[in-house]
Design goal:
- 80% of the residues lie in helices and 1% in strands.
- It is mostly helical and 418 residues long.
- It has a single domain, classed as Growth Hormone, Chain: A, CATH 1.20.1250.20.
- Strands 1-2 form a two-stranded antiparallel sheet.
């Protein structure tokens, strides 16, 4: 029976167990990073913050999160040490930072906790890619990445619903304390299961392609900049959507929570469907390049339907367009990491992902700050939506034109480094 199941899914029971643990970790990851946006109205009131101060607070996480990956520190740890240990240490660090947020007495305290949160979460994606490139078959990476990405979207979706309840019943401080403790509890099953699933292996022969080798690849720059553009759209939604719905659409917090949760759930559903379909098409004989690039490019291109959301007066039409753009974006997120993992291969997955996610997540700083700047100076979100649509369209062009064939790079052995 187990052999039949493996033949049907392309993955062993141990691989499915490992994937389930990773999905749980990214679920917690995105709950912890996203619930600050839900608490923004309460924090703004308590600390009398301006939009620019709010943008600075929302963007603080991304400085350590992006820069530790951009400078290759997170990727180096993922490639050189036990990946199960590195991921566990990162999750412990970001969970402690979440608890600290609940005890912060000043804006500076919140920003410090967010910087620590970013440092802990910086190792997550390099570890995920290292594990996927080593332990997940190439023909199963579409659905595996889709499931992982769905966890990242369900985190904010469920987190928004749960966070809304905790926020209204117990206040924003208790919200962060409860979520931080929940993250620490994940470590118990992780260290129990990861050693059985082969997640602690070191890089083959201890040698990896150096950062210079990776940076010489045109496709690498296509994934770096394309990821930046896609992430800008995501972080625009993640950090500012609740505030937009409350301030500009006039929705109550209860309605805002439901719409925000539905938007994230729509992304998660779309990514699961697209991931499953893409793997089926590849199994049917269509090339990885054609399938994965088409899904990524079309998903980003159609995400531009978010543009009229800010100017449509009818609330129902505006929400419908928002959900359509989220469904399109979910299509993109199902396959872009599968492209990177295939290009990099097991030797370079951690470092390539570290660079890509580092550059990509600078968009978190850009989206948080630039949106706050635009709103403060125009007194409207309309231009912020225009900026998001233009950037996401640029991302579609980058993934389509700058990224080459989706096949593993042949690294020069003489240039491998420790």
């Amino acid at each position: 029976m187990s052999r039949n199941r493996e033949a049907a899914t392309g993955m062993t029971a141990a691989q499915w167990t490992l994937l389930a643990m990773l999905i749980a970790s990214i679920f917690l990851n995105y709950i912890d990073r996203s619930n600050l946006s839900l608490a923004v109205p309460s924090i703004e009131h308590e600390f009398s913050l301006s939009p620019i101060q709010t943008g600075r607070m929302l963007g603080a996480f991304f400085w350590t999160y992006a820069l530790l990956q951009l400078f290759g520190i997170a990727g180096w740890f993922a490639d050189r040490f036990s990946v199960s240990l590195i991921l566990g240490a990162g999750l412990f660090l970001w969970s402690v930072a979440t608890v600290m947020t609940g005890f912060a007495a000043t804006l500076s305290g919140i920003i410090a906790a967010r910087l620590l949160l970013g440092a802990g979460e910086s190792v997550a994606y390099p570890c995920y890619s290292r594990i996927f490139a080593s332990d997940i078959p190439a023909h199963s990476r579409g659905k595996a990445n889709a499931l992982l990405d769905a966890g990242s979207k369900l985190g904010p979706a469920v987190g928004t619903a749960l966070g809304g309840f905790l926020l209204t019943q117990f206040g924003w401080r208790n919200l962060f304390i409860v979520l931080g403790v929940a993250g620490i509890l994940w470590l118990v099953p992780w260290f129990q299961w990861s050693s059985r699933a082969g997640a602690s292996c070191a890089a083959p022969s201890g040698l990896c392609p150096g950062f210079q080798q990776i940076l010489r690849q045109r496709s690498a720059w296509g994934t770096f900049l394309g990821h930046f553009c896609g992430n800008y759209f995501w972080f625009f939604l993640l950090t500012w959507l609740p505030d937009y719905l409350v301030k500009e659409r006039g929705f109550t917090m209860g309605v805002t929570v439901r719409i925000t949760s539905l938007a994230f759930l729509t992304i998660a559903t779309a990514t699961l469907i697209a991931g499953w379909v893409s793997d089926r098409l590849i199994a049917a004989g269509i090339s990885q390049t054609r399938v994965r690039k088409s899904v990524v490019v079309c998903g980003l291109a159609f995400s531009t339907v978010i543009l009229p959301v800010a100017v449509v007066h009818n609330q129902t039409i505006a929400v419908t367009l928002l959900l359509l753009s989220c469904a399109s974006f979910g299509t993109f997120t199902s396959n872009h990491w599968a492209i990177t993992q295939t290009l990099a291969g097991p030797l370079a997955a951690g470092r390539w992902t570290s660079l890509q996610n580092g550059i990509g997540n600078l968009s978190g700083v850009a989206a948080s700050w630039l949106t706050g700047f635009v709103v403060e100076h125009t007194l409207s979100f309309a231009m912020a939506f225009v900026v998001a649509a233009v950037i996401v369209l640029a991302g579609a062009l980058l993934w389509g034109l700058a990224v080459g064939p989706v096949q593993q790079v042949q690294w020069a052995e003489r240039e491998l480094v420790v």
